[in-house]
Amino acid sequence: MDIATGVGLALGSLTIIVLVLMDGSFGIYMDKHAAIVIFGGAISATLIRYPFSTMLHGLPMGLRYVFQLRKLDSRALIEEITKIADIMRKSGPMALETYQVDDPFLAQGIRYVVDGYDSEFIKSTMEQDRDTFLGHLDEGQKIYRAIGDCAPAWGMIGTLLGMVNMFANMEDPSKLGPFMAVALLATLYGAVVANLFCLPIADKLHLKMEEEDVSRTLIIDGVLQVRAAKSPSIIREMLISYLPDHHKAQFQDAETA
Fold first, then answer.
1. Is 115 helix (H, G, I), strand (E, B) or coil?
2. Number of domains in the chain
3. Which residues contact 108 (CB under 8 A, 6 or more apart)?
4. Cα 115 to chain center, whole Å?
5. What is residue 48's predicted lDDT score, i.e. its pLDDT?
6. Mean pLDDT of all residues in the chain?
7. Is 202 domain-assigned?
8. Does 199 fall in a domain?
9. Number of C-beta neighbours around residue 115 at 10 A
10. Average pLDDT over residues 124-133
C-alpha cells in the first residue's frame, strides 16, 4: 500500500477541516447548488471526452492502484534475477520450479522458463501484459486529470451563475447573501476537488506508470537472459543500466563493501 497517498489525502482534508472549524461551522460551507455545478459539470465534461465504459473502469481502477500498487525496488529485482540466473546455470530450469518469487510479473516469466517456452513467445507475451497493464494505469490517470481540469472551470461557472442571480435580485437584500455564498462555494469546491484529490491522484498514477514501465521492462530483459542461460554477472551488469546514476553508485558501493 502507498502510505504517502493516504497520509497526503488525510493531511489535506484535516487542514481544510481545521480551517473551517476555526472560524465557523460545516453548515455554512454546505451548498447543494455549488455541489451540483461542480460534480455534475465535471463529470458531464469528462463523459464528453471519454466513453462511459472508460469512466466506469477508470475511476475505481485509479483509486485501487494509487493506494494498493506495490512499492518497486529495482535493486531488489536485480538481485532476485541474478540469484535466479545462478540457480539456472547451476541446476537447470527445473530447479526453478519450486523457487518462490514475490513479484507476480517476475513469477510469470520464471514459469515460462520452467515450462520451456521459447524466447520469442516469452518476450511477446510479457510485453503484451506490460503494455496492457500500463494502458490501464494511463486510462485511470487520464480520467482523474480530466475531472481535475474541469472542476475549477465549473467552479467559475458556478460563481458566475451565483453573481448573475445576485445582481438580478439587488432589490431584495435578503437574497444577496445566499447567492454570494453559492458563487464563492462553487469556486471553493472546484479548487478542492481539483487540487486535493483529482490532480494529485492523476500525477501519482502517472508516476507509478513510469515506474512500472521501467521495472517490467527490466524483468522482461532479465527473464530473457535467464532463458538464454547467460552468466549471472553479465545479467547483473546489463540490468544495472536501468538504474538512475545515483542508484548505480549505491549499488556498486554495496557490492564492494
1. coil
2. 1
3. 126, 129
4. 33
5. 92
6. 86
7. yes
8. yes
9. 11
10. 94
Q: Do 212 and 188 meet the contact criterion of CB atoms below 8 Å apart?
A: no
Whether residue 20 is contained in a domain is answered as no
Find, among 190, 175, 189, 183, the residue nearest to 159 by Cα. 183
Q: How far apart are CA 224 and CA 236, in angstroms?
A: 13
| Separation CA 226–CA 58 (nearest Å) | 36
Query: Which residue range is the domain that position 64 belongs to?
Result: 31-75+118-256
Distance CA(52)–CA(127), nearest Å, equals: 28
pLDDT given for residue 145 in this prediction: 95
Show the DSSP H helices in the chain as ranges. Answer: 3-23, 32-35, 41-49, 52-68, 74-91, 104-114, 119-168, 173-192, 199-227, 232-240, 245-256
Q: Is the pLDDT of residue 32 over 70?
A: yes
Residue 24 resides in a domain: no
